[in-house]
Amino acid sequence: xxxxxxxxxxxxxxxxxxxxxxxxxxxxxxxxxxxxxxxxxxxxxxxxxxxxxxxxxxxxxxxxxxxxxxxxxxxxxxxxxxxxxxxxxxxxxxxxxxxxxxxxxxxxxxxxxxxxxxxxxxxxxxxxxxxxxxxxxxxxxxxxxxxxxxxxxxxxxxxxx
Length: 161
Fold this sequence. Notes:
Elements: E1 4-16, E2 19-30, E3 36-41, E4 49-54, H1 55-61, E5 66-68, E6 71-78, E7 81-90, E8 93-100, H2 101-114, H3 126-135, H4 142-146, H5 155-160
Antiparallel strand pairs: 1-2, 1-8, 2-3, 3-4, 5-6, 6-7, 7-8
């Protein structure tokens, strides 16, 4: 059985140092995908904007700046309130979002209880999949392994020359 840990919250999309707009978002963590965090931003469109990145990135980003490239996360204070900044970059544009640290931390705590750090691989089912793959079907026949791969008429030798 897989668990989903979700949290609806309002982020702020920073447009300038003096201007930001609220953006409803949903954080989702699935034990079936234990290394990833999924964020859906509900902006003024028919479909949400979805991002997926490593859970480890947001866990670290609550405490210190981390990430590079498409996703960067760091803690800071805005108007004496603790926030987590999330900078997203794509070919379509860039966005700087602020999330309340307390809400992000509480949600992360729930994900870490569902799948403690270092135990993610046990939730992937790789061992079960390999066991099923390797244990599937009857063992190979000895005749198969002992048979001569070359035809008895010598035609293989003729093709090489």
